[in-house]
């Protein structure tokens, strides 16, 4: 298999495996709300899948699902004056009554429906004439806010077509990197940055899997060179997307790892180098022949992704002590966020300059 086939297999491995179960749960929630507010038990009407599922950028293990339930305009007068919590409570009660064994909670902006492997955040909202939605915020005295998910969905689809279907695939690969390296980035931020990158160049407009090594490398370089932002303007809707945590340092490391993987092209360790970027979802290296001492070794190493669904959504710091076995070097207390800056570690980090051919040079 070549590099193109490897990236195609990577994306196959990222497909959402429990999509039928997710659709079933969406239908159950929609039906309960339709029965309460619309006098119908339809499992599809008046419901809009939003978030990464709606933009078709989710990967297997997605745990945070979003939907908007479109309220009848005739009920606006019942909630418009301080009725934000009342609306969420009515939605919560409708779902709980239909599915009493399911855990359902009211949150600030949504109703959270908790299942074993994922949860659905339901946002009851009123559709406006321009296609946007007015939704409740229960903070303080309550208020109504505007969201424009249809514009995000439509622009993602349009750009994906313009970019030879590369946009959604890049978004999925970026999520694999996020989960592998613990990058605290929300899905809409990832999609917006991938969109901005591909819209800034035409290099990949007519290219596909065979060039995804270059494309991902260049994307991570693009991220690493971004200036600090408090927020970005979301794809399509242009609404504010908050940056929870700086991502440039981890993006630069990913760029360097991509460089190493490209440099290993055709070598036995090539796939392992790409696994260093994307994790175990990248195709495994071919098994080497067991050496003469294999019988004395039992591999007991375990990985969290083998036992649990991984969907990184938050950042954390770990205090540790960094020790060196080299004689005379001190034991140093270092925070995880500053780990790469420590001299014992930093001196081992290679410095890279772009030395690989542009994609147009590949024959």
Q: What does the model show?
A:
The structure is a single chain. This protein is α+β, with helices and mostly antiparallel strands. It has twelve helices and eleven strands. The strands form three sheets. Strands 1, 2, 3, 4, 5, 6 and 7 form a seven-stranded mixed beta sheet that branches. Strands 8-9 form a two-stranded antiparallel sheet. A two-stranded antiparallel sheet has the order 10-11. Strand 4 (111-114) and strand 5 (119-127) form a beta hairpin. Helix 2 packs across helix 4, helix 8 packs antiparallel against helix 9 (248-263) and helix 9 (248-263) runs antiparallel to helix 10. It is elongated, with a radius of gyration of 24 Å.
The class by helix and strand makeup works out as alpha+beta
* Total beta-strand segments: 11
The low-confidence runs, each spanning 5 or more residues with pLDDT under 50, are 288-293, 334-357
Approximately what portion of the residues adopt beta-strand conformation?
5-15%
Which sheet architecture does the biggest sheet show? Answer: 7 strands, mixed
Head-to-tail CA distance between termini: 17 Å
Report the oligomer.
single chain
């Amino acid at each position: 298999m070549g590099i193109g086939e490897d990236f195609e297999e990577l994306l196959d491995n990222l497909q959402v495996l429990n999509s039928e179960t997710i659709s079933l749960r969406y239908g159950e929630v929609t039906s309960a709300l339709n029965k309460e507010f619309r006098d119908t038990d339809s499992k599809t009407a008046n419901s809009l899948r939003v978030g990464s599922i709606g933009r078709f950028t989710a990967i297997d293990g997605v745990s945070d699902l979003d939907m908007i339930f479109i309220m009848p305009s005739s009920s606006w007068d019942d909630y418009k004056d301080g009725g934000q919590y009342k609306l969420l409570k009515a939605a919560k009660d409708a779902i709980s009554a239909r599915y009493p064994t399911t855990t359902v909670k009211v949150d600030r902006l949504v109703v959270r429906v908790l299942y074993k492997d994922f949860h659905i955040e339901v946002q009851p909202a009123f559709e406006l004439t321009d296609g946007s939605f007015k939704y409740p915020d229960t903070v303080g005295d309550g208020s109504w806010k505007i969201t424009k998910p249809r514009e995000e969905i439509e622009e993602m689809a349009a750009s994906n077509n313009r970019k030879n279907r590369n946009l959604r695939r890049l978004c999925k690969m970026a999520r694999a990197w996020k989960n592998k390296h613990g990058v605290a980035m929300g899905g809409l931020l990832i999609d917006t940055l991938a969109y901005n990158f591909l819209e800034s160049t035409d290099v990949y407009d007519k290219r596909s899997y065979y060039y995804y090594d270059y494309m991902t490398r260049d994307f991570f370089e693009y991220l690493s060179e971004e200036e600090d932002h408090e927020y970005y303007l979301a794809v399509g809707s242009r609404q504010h997307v908050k940056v929870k945590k700086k991502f440039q340092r981890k993006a630069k490391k990913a760029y360097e790892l991509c460089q190493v993987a490209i440099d290993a092209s055709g070598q036995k360790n090539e796939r392992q180098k790409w696994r260093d970027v994307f994790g175990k979802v990248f195709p495994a290296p071919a098994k080497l022949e067991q050496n003469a001492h294999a019988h004395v070794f039992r591999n007991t190493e375990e990985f969290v992704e083998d036992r649990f669904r991984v969907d990184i959504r938050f950042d954390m710091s770990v205090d540790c002590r960094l020790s060196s076995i080299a004689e005379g070097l001190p034991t140093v207390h270092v925070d995880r966020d500053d780990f790469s800056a420590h001299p014992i570690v930093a001196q081992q980090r290679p410095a890279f300059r772009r030395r690989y051919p542009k994609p147009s040079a590949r024959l």
